[in-house]
Design goal:
alpha+beta, three-stranded antiparallel sheet, elongated
């Protein structure tokens, strides 16, 4: 088996998949930026989803989706209600 053929095949495959790889990279960057914006808001203390959305300029539904995921994986914790909405706080590494 000729190693040059394998290299060429891999190069062609990489080039063919480049649009998907670029989209995945962009998606990861966007997700990281959204999580960072939410975490920055929670560093100042407990906030509700609508408060986070207003402060970040994100849609409430999008914030709720990310906060739910962060809660599921132990990054944020649900606190007491503030009116009709629960508040959320960052979980410190020592709490985990």
């Amino acid at each position: 088996m000729n190693p040059n053929i394998d290299k060429d095949a891999l190069k062609q495959l990489r080039e063919a998949r480049m649009p998907w790889i670029d989209r995945a990279k962009d998606s990861i960057k966007t997700q990281a930026a959204l999580i960072k914006a939410i975490r920055l808001q929670l560093e100042g203390g407990a906030k509700t989803v609508p408060q986070i959305a207003a402060a970040t300029g994100l849609e409430t539904a999008q914030v709720l989706l990310y906060v739910s995921g962060l809660r599921k994986y132990g990054t944020v914790a649900e606190g007491p209600k503030d009116g009709d909405y629960y508040t959320y706080t960052l979980v410190s590494k020592t709490d985990a």
